[in-house]
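4.2 Preliminary Data

To establish feasibility before requesting continued support, the project team ran the inverse folding procedure on a target of 201 residues. The structure was first converted into the token representation described in Section 3, and no sequence information of any kind was made available to the design step. The complete token record follows.
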């Protein structure tokens, strides 16, 4: 560009074209303003009854059995370290749950680890009570997860899902984590259409 005009292949562009080039150059310098994550006050309520001392299916280092309470402690450490890495101003509190508690202005998330249903164990009643409490306590979107598998990796995946800020979460029904790895089969394929093979690798 010389003398206020743009030269292209020996021809001079009109002033309107010059303005368009200048506008495009200015648009490429756009940048997002800096912003920081909101701080959260997070309260952990852990039910420490006899069921929390049941062993998980997988053992720990050197074959030592892992109880549900041990797995919960490790999951909470993972959660706290991850949240502090995102924003060091987050604050945490821990409560051992033994009596009913009501709390105002906080989001309640639930991870319910249980045994398979049996004559003396009805996890569905407990789950229904937790869902009812979740609906009455949380103002924002509270998540509820359950697992009767006894697998620590399921617990770790669920605790990582709770890293999302309650104000910024989608509805739990819209979550599809983890994504299904099953092969997608087209439903409306006519005889004349070509179907592209999907790799399962």
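Position-by-position output of the design step:
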């Amino acid at each position: 560009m010389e003398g206020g005009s743009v030269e292209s292949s020996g021809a001079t562009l009109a002033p309107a074209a010059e303005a368009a080039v200048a506008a495009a150059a200015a648009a490429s310098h756009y940048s997002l303003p800096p912003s920081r994550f909101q701080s959260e006050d997070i309260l952990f309520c852990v039910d420490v009854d006899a069921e929390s001392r049941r062993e998980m299916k997988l053992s720990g280092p050197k074959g030592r059995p892992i109880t549900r309470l041990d797995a919960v402690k490790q999951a909470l450490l993972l959660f706290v370290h991850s949240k502090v890495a995102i924003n060091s101003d987050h604050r945490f509190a821990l409560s051992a749950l033994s009596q009913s508690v009501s709390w105002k202005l906080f989001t309640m998330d639930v991870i319910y680890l249980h045994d398979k249903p049996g004559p003396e164990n009805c996890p569905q009643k407990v789950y229904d009570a937790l869902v009812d409490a979740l609906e009455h306590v949380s103002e924002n979107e509270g998540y509820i997860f359950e697992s009767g598998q006894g697998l620590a990796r399921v617990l770790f995946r669920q605790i990582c899902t709770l890293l999302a800020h309650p104000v910024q979460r989608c509805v739990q029904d819209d979550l599809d984590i983890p994504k299904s790895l099953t092969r997608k089969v087209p439903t409306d394929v006519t005889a004349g259409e070509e179907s592209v093979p999907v790799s399962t690798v």
